[in-house]
Structure formats: C-alpha cells, structure tokens
Design goal:
Ribosomal Protein S5, domain 2, globular, Alpha-Beta Plaits, binds (3R)-3-hydroxy-3-methyl-5-(phosphonooxy)pentanoic acid, alpha+beta, about 325 residues
Length: about 325
C-alpha cells in the first residue's frame, strides 16, 4: 500500500460546565459530564500520512514522526501521540508508522490549551487516512482517549459530553448548532507561560480534595441548569451556573494534595471586574481552565466592547475573541 494521507481541522473549546478528574485514567472516563462551546478561529490543522514502506520491507516499524508548528517533537509529547496512534493502528489493523504535521493557528505561547483541538484534528485525520469511516460518536470516543476535552471538539456548536458508564457511552454530541446563540469567548491572556501542572496530572489529583465528591455529586444539577439556560438563551441563568462551576473546579484544585493554584493577581482582577460589569447590565461571565487566563463569555454584539474593556485592564497582555465554532472537518 502506498502512503495514505488526510488533513483535518478542529476548533478549541471552552467548557462552561467543566470536567475535572477521571473515573478511569487510562480510558479517560470523566468523573462528571461537561458542556462546552467550540471556539471559531482558534484551531489546529493536522495532516497524517501512514507510511507503510518500512513494514513491507520486513523491517521493524520506525518511530512515528511529529512536527508541531514547524518543530520536530520528541520525548513525552511524541510518546503520548504514538500511544494514541496505537489505538488507530489497532482499529484499522495496520502496522504503519505515522508522519504527523500539525499547526495551531492561535498564537503560540499564549497559554491557551491546544490538546482539545489537537487530538480532535488528529483523530479525524489519522482515522480517515487509515481507511476507517467512523461515525461521529465513535470519533468523539476515540478523541477522548487522546485528551478528554478533545471529544468535545469533534461535534459542532454547543456540546455535551456524557460521563457514560464505560468506554462505549462516554462521548460528546452537539446539543445546539453554532447559530443557536450568538455568544463569544473573549480570552483575557494574563500570562503566556507554560502552566506548571498539566491537566493530565491535575485530573489524577482531583480525588485528593475533600471537595471533589461534592462537586461531582452536584454535577447533574449544574448540567441540567446549563443545558436549560443554553436552550432558552437565558444569559443571566447561564452566567450564574458558569461562574459557580468554574469556582467549584478551582476550589477542588486549591484543596488537592499537593494544591494547585492556577490564578494570578490579574486573574482575580478580571474576575472582579466581570462581576461588576454584569451588575452594571453587561452580559458577561467568566470561566477559567487549568491556567491563569480568563475566558469571558458574552453576547456576540458586545464582544468588541468587552474585548476593549479587557484590553485596558492592567496585567492583560492580549485579548482573543472567538465566536461559537463548528465541528471538526476534513480539508484538502
Ligand atoms: O482534556 P484535558 O485533560 O486537557 O482536561 C481539560 C480540563 C479543563 O480544561 C480544566 C476543563 C474542561 O472540561 O475542559
């Protein structure tokens, strides 16, 4: 067989009811379900080529190759991708090595997590190039094995990842298309540094917090409120649940052993201002992932104004604005 290639593009996503902690680390089965929106314009484009040449000549398969934004990767980054590609090799019944070339269009080093868009694009490109024709649910399930949040970057728009009972029923599906509600995420970048503790290690610490069991037990209620606020386009209801959910996750992080503190001074400044702006009538709420940058969700019509307000806050280095994005797609 000659080399088979495919290229896919997938958006990043922001969770508005968050995933933190796994029931099963290897399968990345989450402690709780989550809801997110895809971020249009912040994407990863990945080309995968399965190279069978070495195998047909009887030699042992050479290592996969991985180039991200023009840089050849080795070590843990390559091992994680190769372990994921092993799943695709097994499903497709092939033993080829993969050549993976990937680019994030969002500025490098702004501290925006790329694992969701990266593993979603890799899932689609690698499976199609391997000759697999997976249903959306199967693609999402496979992406979950690379990075939990990646399963939410396979479908488009507003997305819910069901915690499920096992591998089979733990995947994400769209609950509303992007055009359902003109929202935007204005990302206030307060630090471009690499985060000290990545989410894979962070998930493993979640159960050491005495608050995690509470957070998980209450998740179905928050998911229900968030789903209803989204479907009825009720911004005030959405704001209350989004901020509560983010605060709960950070309370778990701060009370883990060892504790994880992702916020910086400017993170708290933005959180305080967002609450003040909302009291003043502006539709805004905040959500913070495993890093110091603040995702400020607002209505599309206010996005320019909110971005200007954020850019003027001391400590904010840059603001990225993303409307609601579509599903992962194959491209030429
Ligand atoms: O998919 P991971 O392992 O990068 O975990 C994502 C964790 C959070 O971004 C903090 C929350 C979420 O649901 O996206």
């Amino acid at each position: 067989m000659s080399a088979q290639s495919a290229t896919a593009v997938a958006c990043a996503n922001i969770a508005i009811v968050k995933y933190w902690g796994n029931r099963d680390d290897a399968l990345r089965l989450p402690a709780n379900g989550s809801i997110s929106m895809n971020l249009e314009g912040l994407f990863t484009r990945t080309r995968v080529t399965w190279d069978e040449l070495r195998v047909t000549s009887g030699e042992q398969r050479e290592a996969d190759s991985l180039v991200i934004n023009g840089r050849r990767m080795a070590g843990d980054g390559l091992r994680r991708v190769s372990a994921f590609l092993d799943l695709v090799r097994k499903m497709a019944g092939i033993d080829a090595r993969a050549i993976v070339e990937s680019e994030n269009n969002f500025p490098a080093g702004v501290g925006i997590a790329s694992s969701a868009s990266a593993f979603a694009a890799l899932t689609l490109a690698a499976s199609v190039a391997a000759g697999l024709d997976l249903e959306p649910a199967a693609l999402s399930r496979l992406a979950r094995r690379g990075s939990g949040s990646a399963c939410r970057s396979i479908p488009g728009g507003f997305v819910e990842w069901q915690a499920g009972t096992g591998d089979e029923d733990s995947f994400a599906a769209s609950i509303a298309p992007p055009e359902h509600w003109d929202l935007a995420d204005c990302i206030a970048v307060v630090s471009a540094e690499q985060k000290p503790t990545g989410s894979t290690e962070g998930h493993a610490l979640a159960d050491t917090s005495p608050l995690q069991a509470c957070r998980v037990a209450d998740a179905p209620r928050r998911l229900d409120l968030c789903r209803r606020a989204l479907l009825s386009r009720d911004f005030d209801a959405l704001a209350g649940i989004v901020e509560l959910d983010s605060n709960l996750m950070h309370a778990v992080m701060m009370t883990s052993t060892p504790p994880l503190f992702y916020w910086q001074e400017s993170t708290l400044t933005v959180m305080r201002l967002v609450r003040e702006w909302r009291l003043g009538g502006l539709p805004v709420c905040y959500s913070i992932d495993a890093g110091p940058n603040v995702h400020v969700i607002t209505e599309g019509a206010e996005a320019g104004h909110v971005a200007d307000l954020l850019a003027a806050v001391p400590g904010v280095q840059k603001v990225l604005v993303a409307p609601v994005g579509g599903p992962a797609e194959l491209v030429e």
